[in-house]
C-alpha cells in the first residue's frame, strides 16, 4: 500500500473528482453497499494505486501543509 488507509480517506474526502466504483470487477455485478470515501474505491484509482487524474499528490501535499 502506497499510503495509509486514513490518508486515502482524507484525500478522497477533499477530491472533487471522487466517484465510487460501484461495479464488482470480478463478476460484473453492482455492489450493494457504499463504503466510506477512499481513493481505494474510486473509479479513477488504478490497481497500482495511482490516480489516473493525477489528483492524489497535490491533495495529499496540501493536507501535509495543513498539519
Report on the architecture of this protein.
The chain is mainly alpha-helical and 67 residues long. It has one domain (5-66). It is 31% helix and 0% strand. It has 2 helices and no strands. The protein has helices at 5-14, 56-66. Helix 1 (5-14) crosses helix 2 (56-66). The chain is elongated and about 40 Å long. The protein starts with a helix and ends with a helix.
Query: In one word, what is the shape?
Result: elongated
N-C termini distance: 22 Å
Q: How many structurally independent domains?
A: 1
Order of helices and strands: HH
Structural class: mainly alpha
Poorly predicted runs:
none
Structural key phrases:
31% helix; 0% strand; mainly alpha; 67 residues; single chain; elongated; 2 helices
Gist?
The chain is mainly alpha-helical and 67 residues long. It is built from two helices and no strands.
SSE layout and pairing:
Elements: H1 5-14, H2 56-66
Amino acid at each position: 500500500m502506497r499510503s495509509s488507509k486514513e490518508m486515502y480517506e482524507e484525500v478522497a474526502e477533499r477530491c472533487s473528482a471522487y466517484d465510487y466504483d460501484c461495479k464488482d470487477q470480478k463478476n460484473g455485478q453492482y455492489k450493494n453497499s457504499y463504503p466510506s470515501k477512499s481513493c481505494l474505491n474510486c473509479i479513477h484509482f488504478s490497481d497500482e494505486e495511482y490516480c489516473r487524474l493525477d489528483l492524489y499528490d497535490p491533495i495529499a501535499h496540501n493536507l501535509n501543509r495543513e498539519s
